[in-house]
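Whiteboard transcription, Tuesday session. T.W. wrote the structure tokens on the left side:
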């Protein structure tokens, strides 16, 4: 089932996504492709997702049709918080796919620099307000967090993500240290909204990995 597998499946059961996806199930393959393009390209994801959306605009635009937008706005807002922008009207879909807009996105992608904190799946969310301040203070943890995100979205959800987190506990726990937790709670809350749970204290890390 395209609506319950892959990257989309990891989000589809969350309250923000369920109502929307239930009314636009025909959009699941295209939306899943856009998510895959976004996360696979890390910091370059915005350009990749725009191209994927434009290739499948007729299908994905179901989400923003007048009869559907009410139930889909929570999903669109959640995606926006992750740095994954979706147009919010059929007209915006058309405008975002104009050749000049696509060319500008590609140019920005080509000029971007890649680091462990701006590449891979983490790179897709690292520049969002919820994540940036947290990641800036724990940059040494980026490879481990990237591994956990990749495990969650590509290997089956929470169980493989937890295994990855526990294998890298010493690194990832940086986010929950007393000096860092305040700036990291917005990112942890955002991840929880996606169904990706992170412990919120060093003690919780140790307990969850026993």
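and on the right, the sequence the group agreed on:
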């Amino acid at each position: 089932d395209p609506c319950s597998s892959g990257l989309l499946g990891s989000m589809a059961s969350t309250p923000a996504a369920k109502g929307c996806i239930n009314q636009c199930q025909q959009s699941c393959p295209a939306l899943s492709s856009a998510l895959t393009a976004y996360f696979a390209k890390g910091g370059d994801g915005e350009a990749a997702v725009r191209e994927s959306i434009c290739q499948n605009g007729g299908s994905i635009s179901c989400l923003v049709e007048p009869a559907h937008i009410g139930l889909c706005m929570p999903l669109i807002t959640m995606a926006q918080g992750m740095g994954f922008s979706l147009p919010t009207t059929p007209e915006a879909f058309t405008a975002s796919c104009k050749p000049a807009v696509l060319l500008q996105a590609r140019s920005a992608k080509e000029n971007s620099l890649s680091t462990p904190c701006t590449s891979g799946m983490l790179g897709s969310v690292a520049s969002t307000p919820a994540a940036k301040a947290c990641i800036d203070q724990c940059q040494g943890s980026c490879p481990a967090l990237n591994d956990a995100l990749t495990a969650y979205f590509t290997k089956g959800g929470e169980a493989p993500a937890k295994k990855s987190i526990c294998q890298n506990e010493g690194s990832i726990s940086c986010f929950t240290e007393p000096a860092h937790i305040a700036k990291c709670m917005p990112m942890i809350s955002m991840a929880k909204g996606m169904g990706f749970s992170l412990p919120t204290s060093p003690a919780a890390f140790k307990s969850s990995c026993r």
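Someone added at the bottom: The chain is about 65% helix and 0% strand.
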